[in-house]
Amino acid sequence: MRLPFLFAIATFAALFPLGSLAADDSSDTESQQFFEKKIRPVLISECYSCHSAEADEMEGGLALDTRTGIRRGGERGAAVVPRNLEKSLLIKAIRHATDDLQMPPDKKLSPEVIADFEKWISLGAVDPREGEAIVAHRYEVDIEAGRKHWAFQVPQAPEIPDVQQSDWPITNIDRFVLAKLQAQGISPVDQADKRTLLRRLSFDLIGLPPTEMEVEAFVTDDSADAYEAAVDRLLASPHFGEKWARHWLDVARYAESTGSTVNFFYPQAWRYRDYVIDAFNHDKPYDQFVKEQLAGDLMRSENSKQQAERMIATGFLALGTKTLNERSGLKYELDVADEQIDVTTQAFLGITVACARCHDHKFDPIPQADYYAMAGIFRSTETCYGTIRFINAQRPSELLTLPADAEVDVAISALSDSERDRIESQMDRVQEQIRNLREPVQRFLTSGQVSLLQAQLDAYESNGDPKSLAMGVHDKRSGPQFGNRRSFGFGQGANRYTYDSTRLIANSPVYIRGEHDSPEKELVPRGTLQVLTSTPLEIPRSHSGRLELAEWIATPNNPLTARVMVNRVWLQLFGRGLVPTADDFGLAGQVPSHPELLDHLAIGFMDDGWSVKRLIRRIVTSQVYQLSSTAEDQALAIDPDNVLLWRMSLRRLDAESLRDAMLAVSGRLDEKRPIGSAVARQSEGPVNRFGGASITRSIDDPDNVHRSIYLPVIRDSLPESLALFDAADPSLITAHRQQTTVPAQGLYLLNNEFVLRASDEAARQLLTLSGQDKRIDAAFVRFFGRKATATEHDQANRFLTSYPTETPLRFRPGRPNNEHARWSAFCQALFASAEFQYRR
After folding, report:
1. How many beta carbons lie within 10 A of that of residue 421, not counting itself?
2. Which of 154, 287, 556, 769 is 20 to 30 A from 710 via CA?
């Protein structure tokens, strides 16, 4: 379906004419996970003693241990009104907004917990609790029954189905899909035209539109292998890694700051980003990719370069959010381990083990003991992420020092002697100022400046060369089980407090209700999930267990690993996974639409040496992938969501591809990979420094013409070009991005400096051609990969002719005349059109 071009010009697509896409099938599951991880534990620990069936007397007639009770409320009214914070009395109570309504009454919950409740209610207050109150911290788990779940059984090679339309399939993928379609009386639509197909393929494989030369060469190539040659060319492109790394970074919750309550930079995070890009470009076997991210530091390396690469890979475990102002060291350690368990099990296994922190898993056969078996592995691991001790951030860590002879890139320039002298002199002045201050609070605040200055020096060797540092993990020392601890003190006098954490490799106890001050006496041996293995992991006493865990996940006998990755790839190519809940293959997730096809692909993936490129090639060379996006009334009536794959689903470009396409079409794109990032050049410290440099300008710098994957990723402060167009929240594990259609997107395309500059440059290129019709043709080929129709020629000519010549809409440097302004407005209309923004 091609929408009228004049409509795009008239409206600049302020409201996208294609409307919103189908609702995200995984939203309910993700909301339930949020409730289980963030909401239920707090209700249990802080509220149930007075507001549940276990309470001696139900205070205020308010029951908070069931969904019905929390929504009905008590004597004062409804405690929770979904999507309405003002009417939800629970929010007023936990905010301690009034003297007569404060819960808990003896203390106020932390700001991050209050924010979690506000988010929960704003998103609809999803609450899976049914029936009577559930207050015990354990549920009955039947491991043997759980093993019968389809996802917990090893994939078996299915029989290739026979199909009636035997001349239609190209690959076995097509046969599985066609068999399902024929069973429902649906016929697939025709194949997409070559121009549409190449544009789809280019965006899906490298995240960029095809050039004019590439389009014309493909259209005129009548050889039998023209399409396969285009696939191979794109798979070999260095841009392939930049596109597919972004998908994995969504899952890995990649960011360059801690987020949470106090937001501090991760100046070394970029190394992990580049590791992932290189891994996809070099087609690193996925099983090796898994092991390197979980235990690369423990793997044997052939040389220093490989050792450095594998150390950097473990940044996967260090990148998560950090609550740097957490006062309890033990709770902080448990929270870090919890976050690592969550990302490991969702990313690689597609299950939500972290839901078992406070109680046996509500849905899956995962007892709380299994959670703490894994917690022992990650608690025996030292997480190295950097940051500095600064005012309310008291959880700094070391960084990994990479091998000196690995010759890795560094993001900062050498430190001159004069610059070192300047920093040291400044430190002396600040320290003298501290000595002269009498007020302890002022001394404490000023001492933060010393930390910032010291961090600048600590980034360099004594000779001024930048240190080769990285985020990552390493094992703690081995020793007596769960005995030795380390303690730290902070503050003075009555304000002094201490925290401690485990120093050595050790097993972990179960913590009742997940509370750090309620451990059980018995320790749980380090290990993994009973439902997925018949024999426990054998972990030597001196090992954390990370390597053993990584090898167990990466084995072909693990029923989930290959399936989960195959499903992630399918999701990115079709917009919907064979399993729609890509991060939840458990009992609460949805069953696969084509289970035999999923297993067929998973087994082929492993047989092909876990090659992601071969998997993608197999999928995109299928007939199913090459279908047009045309809608058929009969098929729509039977399968409106296209679950059975009778056509290609229409999808908007992701945020990065949309921005990159503007750069590419306008000729502004710098294809060279930058070393480091804007954050890497900021050094350690808080994102918003007192009286210091800010990274705000770098986040939305219109002069940054590198690919979007290299933009700074600051938690809670994404670039506007990404945030407005549904980029992943870097604080969350994101398999499937939501797609929204909101007016702010249209306003961005109308007014943003980045869009205006791209329009100006695209117009400048068109003006090198002679003749208005020739320019219009060139513009359509560059923007859409096709020529303009006669009707579109007429509409474009009318727009260009009617554009005001005496008073341009906006004079800008670089627009030397009205002619340039006219063509810039024309290009901006093309950028804002639905056809440019959507991949068909």
Report:
1. 10
2. 287
